[in-house]
Structure formats: structure tokens, C-alpha cells
Design brief:
With about 80 residues, this protein is mostly helical. The protein is built from four helices and three strands, in the order H-H-E-H-E-E-H.
Length: about 80
């Protein structure tokens, strides 16, 4: 991403993101406890995607109805939705 695209993305996240309390603990799904925390946050927030560079999480591919993708894959998904 160019610096301008990065800044636009950060601005978008700041305006659209919301802080969500963890209401659903997720123990022992990922290979590391801190990754379980990421999944618990996504589940509690009813996320559609977890976008991560963490290969351990990416290897899961999904958790319940949440897709786990790389930043590059997520960018492609967004571009395809924009084109549709």
C-alpha cells in the first residue's frame, strides 16, 4: 500500500471501528493463548473477518463463521466487492 492508501485506511478504521468487550472466551483453539484472545474478540464483536499477518491464525482459515485472511487477501476481497 502506498502511504496515502495507508493513511486512508487508518482514517476509515478510526471512523468505523468500535471497541467491543470480550463476552465469549475462546480457550485452546489457536496455538497460542494470545491468538485465542484475538478469536474471542472477533467472536464477541460478531466479526466477519480476522485480518492478520499471523501465519498460525491464517492456518486455521476460519473460526466458526469468521474468515481468517492475510491483509493481501482481504485487500483483494475489498477490491472485488468494490468492482461488483
Amino acid at each position: 500500500m502506498t502511504p496515502k492508501q495507508t493513511q486512508s485506511f487508518i482514517s476509515l478504521v478510526k471512523t468505523r471501528a468500535r471497541v467491543v468487550p470480550i463476552t465469549t472466551p475462546i480457550p485452546n483453539v489457536a496455538t497460542h493463548p494470545e491468538d485465542d484472545l484475538v478469536l474471542a474478540t472477533a467472536e464477541s464483536g460478531k466479526a466477519s473477518f480476522v485480518v492478520t499477518g499471523n501465519h498460525g491464525l491464517q492456518d486455521l482459515k476460519h473460526f466458526k463463521d469468521i474468515k481468517i485472511v492475510s491483509p493481501g487477501t482481504f485487500s483483494e476481497i475489498l477490491q472485488n466487492k468494490k468492482a461488483a
